[in-house]
Amino acid sequence: MPVGRGRLRFLPLLVCACSLGLICMALAFAPPSTVTPRDLPVTSSFEIVAEFPHDPDAYCQGLVFDGGNLFEGTGLNGKSSLRRVDLKTGKVLKIVPLEKRLFGEGITVWKDQIIQVTWKTGEGFVYDKESLRLIKKFRYSGQGWGLTHDDKHLILSDGSATLRFLDPETFKVVKRVDVRCAGRMPAAVNQLNELEYVNGEVLANIWYEDVIARIDPASGRVLGWIDLKPLVEASGRKDEHCVLNGIAWDATDERLFVTGKNWPRLYEIRVKQARN
Ligand SMILES: [Ca+2]
149 alpha carbon to ligand 1 midpoint, in Å? Predict the structure, then answer.
């Protein structure tokens, strides 16, 4: 082996080491990332447009409005179900109970099907949207909390700050998005619960919070908060454990519905102009 070549074979490693050192130094002395006012979430208030009865025995974990029908997924072992509900009267038109060992969670309408997930059992169900007949079961990893979809994927929350995007045919995870709120200390937004995809944004309940987060599904950035504290206070809920949960969007008439776990009422609300 020629002498020169023996020395030169370490040159690429030396260059890499020097480059890495320079990058580390640059990072160490770089100014902290700045957050522009545009990045900061805005806060919106709301007004009540209409008020409807809601079954106070329904521990709402999933809410969807589709084709003039309100669908609700309820939780708790022994009380979990999928329901079709008459919006105006709150009357349960059809109910499919889950086995007692299952704790029902989010639901979403995908084409002519309704998909429902469960909390810790990793079992999901696909129903026919019209008859609520069970078509098939599927499995997924981790917990299931809220469920919605964009035009390509199911979007699943699990109580963490991460939204998982699932292939609606195979239920495999195709991507993950971490939800963060910009500010002086950008923070992960944990406890993401019931979801609803509305005009390119994911609206999310946050467990034990009286706000709905407006999330950019591409970046995970919280665009804003909808402050529903006055609604929570006026809801007639039994206690503080009956948290705000349940968001449904009527895409035809552009109506937004919200309710809570065991709330006696369900509301159509209009979100007002956001403010900083
Ligand atoms: Ca929903």
Answer: 9
Does the global pTM surpass 0.70? yes
Q: Quote the ligand 1 centre to 101 CA distance (angstroms).
A: 23
pLDDT of residue 184: 61
Q: How far is the CA of 247 from the centre of ligand 1 (A)?
A: 4
CB atoms closer than 10 angstroms to residue 109: 18
| CA of 238 relative to ligand 1 center, distance in Å | 22
Q: Distance from the CA of 266 to the center of ligand 1, in angstroms?
A: 13
pLDDT at 36: 67
Centre of ligand 1 to C-alpha 23, Å, is 45
pLDDT for position 39: 75
Task: Specify the pLDDT at position 24.
Answer: 38
